[in-house]
Design brief:
two-stranded antiparallel ribbon; 56% helix; globular; 3% strand; mainly alpha; single chain
Amino acid sequence: MVTHVPSEAHGDERGALINFVEAQRGAIRRSVLGLTEEQAASRPSASELSLSGLLKHVAEAELNWLRLAQQRPNERARTQETWGDSFRLVDGETVPETLAFWEGVAKETEEFIRAVPSLDDTFPLPEAPWFPKEGAVSMRWLMLHLVEEIGRHAGHADVIRESLDGKGAFDLVALEGGRG
């Protein structure tokens, strides 16, 4: 990570978790700075991943985990048939629209985490072969998982962006700050 994650107020675990999630979000948002829709959708490596697809995927993944924690239906739930669409923009979707959608999800995540009575509160995991049967996780786990999930894809985004135009994470931080 190339940006400083601001310190939370003493004892503010929620603030610390939110700040670390936001730092990872920032890395992916910066990966599309200055690119055309075509560049953001391109796949310059052996991987099938693109920057716009990663952007959409992490936004939808965060929404999915938020809805699980809220124990509400996910309005963008994917099926086996539509799973691939979570990694690419379709039907006229754009990078700015996807960024705006994710901004709304991020705001809702922060509001939810700040409002839950305790980070120790739990919610059930969905049925999946990789989760324990009748498993549950805490709100703290949710936030740590978002750091992990978004951070993993931020690394993918770094490689893709460098493959496109040679700009690395430091270059993008400078570009975002008007120094690039």
